Amino acid sequence: MELTYLRNNNDKYIHVFSCCIPVRGHERGAIYDLQREEIELVPNTMIDFLEHIKNRKVSSVLEEFESDTMAKKYLDFLEKNEFVFYSNTVSFPELSARSINEDTSVIQFMTIMLSEFIDDNLDAVIKNINELGVKRLHVHMSSQDCMKEIHKFLNLLEYSRVTNMSFSIPYQKIDKKLYNNNRLKTLYLFNSPKEKVETNNEVTSVFIMVNDARMFIPKFNINTVDVNSTAYNIAVNYNLSLYKTVFVDEHGEIKFNVSDKTGYGNITDSIEEIKTRTFPELSTLWNIKKTDIAPCNICEFRFCCTVTHIPFKKDDGYAVNCNYNPYNAELN
What is the residue extent of each domain of the chain? Predict the structure, then answer.
């Protein structure tokens, strides 16, 4: 069947929507749809084809690929998925690569392992969460009956800048009153007898069968990608996985993840010490982009991956150990 653009757009130019970002990987490519917050995995040949045809006239492309069936399938796919559009205008501005992140938070995302130490110093912890401007906070609790503790945390942060709260707790009965809290977004219930997902009043309850020992080990899967304009902008300019993201262990030590051997200060330290000592040390790794880390630099997910792998120095640059292998597009 004749393609739509053959009838209507022959004299127009082909343009890629600025919110659709083609990314070439080693084994395959991806198109990030930042507006719909979706990712489409495609062959690298399609990425090359898309780069080849953009800003060219439809008639010129059709003439060049007149007998190429695959090229016409690619064009049809790109059009139907609204990755391209046609216009009489020769060119349109592309998405700016410069940083437009204007968030003033020192730390945006924090994970805290609740412990006796944290509980004993809770006033100082809450104060620093507020001072640091944390927007997303995850609290891990190990007690079998922790509904009161969750309510306590939510109440203490009622007037904070935290807008997104989540908790990981052992499998137990959920107090339905929690569903009325606008800050609470997700509950993860580990050691569940079966896996399921429930939604109540915009609060998502995720029941998982794994134990808490495995929950915080950095591991890639498709759920760890974050496709949107803000995430992409950060990824182009910084390390999206680490940028303004910290893990606070049961001793209050500020780290990047549960496996991190380095401590960058303590959550109970004075806010001045955190800002003058901890912040500069953390920001050193924030500025190591995925494009400078192997094998991230040849991975199709390099501008949307949020797994907190810590890069280590090698003779020829930086590297991470990841369970996703971009050379064969398989999980290990």
Answer: 10-87, 109-286, 290-331
Model pTM?
A: 0.90
Reference 228, options 136, 119, 304; nearest CA is 304
The DSSP output letter for 213 is G
Angle among Cα 285, 97, 222 to the nearest 5 degrees reads 65
Give the Cα separation of 14 and 9 in Å (integer): 9
Burial of 149 (0-12, 13-18, 19+ CB in 10 A): middle
Element (H, E) at 59: helix 58-64
| Distance from C-alpha of 183 to C-alpha of 106, rounded to nearest angstrom | 20
Preceding peptide of 193 cis, ω within 30°? no
Residues 1-29, buried b or exposed e (16+ Cβ, 10 A)? Answer: eebebeeebeebbbbbbebbbbbbbbebb
Domain 10-87 has CATH 3.90.930: yes
| pLDDT string in tens for the chain (332-residue length) | 445 555 678 889 999 999 999 999 999 999 999 999 999 999 999 999 999 999 999 989 989 998 999 998 999 899 999 999 999 988 777 776 665 556 788 999 999 999 999 999 999 999 999 999 999 999 999 988 899 999 999 999 998 999 999 999 999 999 999 999 999 999 999 999 999 999 999 999 999 998 887 889 999 999 899 999 999 999 999 999 999 999 999 999 999 999 999 999 999 999 999 999 999 999 999 999 999 999 999 999 999 999 999 999 998 899 999 999 999 999 98
In sequence order, the 6+-apart residues with CB closer than 8 A to the CB of 24 are: 44, 47, 48, 300
323 touches 299 (CB < 8 A):
no
CA distance to 84, 177, 192, per residue, from 233 (Å): 21, 37, 37
Q: Are 130 and 161 in contact (CB under 8 A)?
A: yes
Instruction: Give me the helices (H) in 109-251, please.
Output: 116-120, 122-132, 147-156, 229-237
